[in-house]
Automatic annotation (TrEMBL):
InterPro entries: G_CP_dom, Ribosome_biogen_GTPase_RsgA, RsgA_GTPase_dom. Its EC number is 3.6.1.-. It comes from Geomonas diazotrophica. One of several proteins that assist in the late maturation steps of the functional core of the 30S ribosomal subunit. Helps release RbfA from mature subunits. May play a role in the assembly of ribosomal proteins into the subunit. Circularly permuted GTPase that catalyzes slow GTP hydrolysis, GTPase activity is stimulated by the 30S ribosomal subunit. CDD domains: YjeQ_EngC. It is an enzyme of class 3 (hydrolase). This is Small ribosomal subunit biogenesis GTPase RsgA. It is found in: Cytoplasm. Its main location: cytoplasm. Zn(2+) binds at residues 253, 258, 260, 266. The keyword Metal-binding applies.
Length: 306
């Protein structure tokens, strides 16, 4: 690795940040070469960023999308840039409401969400699959599978191979790591291959890494990015992106900031009356709306600005 490429004077090379080590990033260049480039700590670069590199000077290109999370003190952290899709991983026992929040968060960030129903080898997964299928089938791609047995993983591979760059999110224990390992056989290998570098702290400060899948597509591994903060959505985002309200693309509420509750001229309530939106979906929305409103008030009190 490294020395084959001649750096032409004044010629910047274009690449992609595939790993981040705090004081350095690993850049994958269009030539296929990989090289470590030093960056300032807190320079704001993340995995998925497109860059140009001239010598040791790295310049970030504009981003298409940004995926962020919020920490326990309200600080916002960028997790990855330029993702196209976000896989929301569910398994028996996932708290209800998580999926809707995650879908809204993904859509708000400009990522197309899809659903992975993991642990389908367990009998409890049958009922979850039925419930999820009845609500979300036709709204977004669904992948029932088992990361452990490998059953059902092929359709997900096909989906990702259509040139998609994605990441997974899900509550702890749903099987995100298992899924990453099943999809990226290079993951374990990679840890070993990198160990002969001697950048200080590289093993402990890795934020995330991007992996090309053997059949096409890319996945970003995001250690520490589970459910936390992703589900932190605003009332406006919820009202605009709630799954099941897709028919609203053609109809608009009278008020731009309509919360779809009692406002006059509300297109959502019209759709519920006419059957375009199910009463059940609408009731689920109202419950979530109440929760998001309460969280927003609390955040305002703590002075978390969004
Ligand atoms: N039965 C069954 N168990 C699974 C499956 N996928 C993962 N598991 C198990 O679920 C547990 C959690 O899996 P992980 O892959 O560590 O889950 P995770 O989402 O990465 O968890 P966190 O790192 O805590 O966020 C492990 O014991 C896995 O073996 C599956 O498809 N079927
Ligand atoms: Zn409305």
């Amino acid at each position: 690795m490294g020395n084959k490429h001649q750096h032409g004077k004044g010629l910047a090379e274009q690449g992609l940040i595939v790993s981040h080590f705090g004081v350095a990033v690993e850049v994958l260049f269009e030539t296929g070469e990989r090289r470590m480039v030093k960056v300032k700590r807190n320079s704001g670069h993340v995995v998925g960023d497109g860059v140009t590199v001239l010598g040791e000077v790295l310049h970030r290109l504009p981003r298409r999308t940004e995926l962020s999370r919020r920490d326990a003190r309200g600080g916002i952290h960028l997790v990855a840039a330029n993702l196209d899709v976000l896989g929301v991983v569910l398994a028996p026992g996932t708290p209800s409401g998580f999926l809707d929040r995650a879908i809204v968060a993904a859509r708000t960030a400009g990522l197309a969400p899809f659903v992975v129903l993991n642990k389908c080898d367990l009998p409890e997964a049958l009922e979850l699959g039925r419930v999820i299928g009845s609500v979300y089938d036709g709204i977004l791609p669904l992948f029932p599978l088992s990361a452990v047995t490998g059953a059902g993983i092929e359709p997900l591979r096909d989906f990702l191979s259509q040139g998609h760059r994605g990441a997974f999110v899900g509550t702890t224990g749903v099987g995100k790591s298992s899924l990453m390992n099943a999809l990226c056989p290079e993951l374990n290998l990679k840890v070993g291959a990198l160990s002969d570098y001697n950048w200080t702290g590289r093993h402990t400060t890795t934020v995330s890494s991007l992996h090309a899948l053997p059949g096409g597509g890319e996945l970003v591994d995001t250690p520490g990015f589970r459910d936390f903060g992703l589900v932190d959505i605003t009332v406006q985002e919820l009202a605009a992106w709630f799954p099941g309200f897709e028919s609203l693309q053609d109809h608009r509420c009278r008020f731009n900031d309509c919360r779809h509750r009692q406002e006059p001229g509300c297109a959502v309530r019209d759709e519920v009356t006419s059957g375009g939106i199910s009463e059940e979906r609408y009731q689920t929305y109202l419950v979530l709306l109440g929760e998001v409103e309460a969280l927003e008030e609390e955040a305002l009190r703590r002075n978390w600005k969004k």
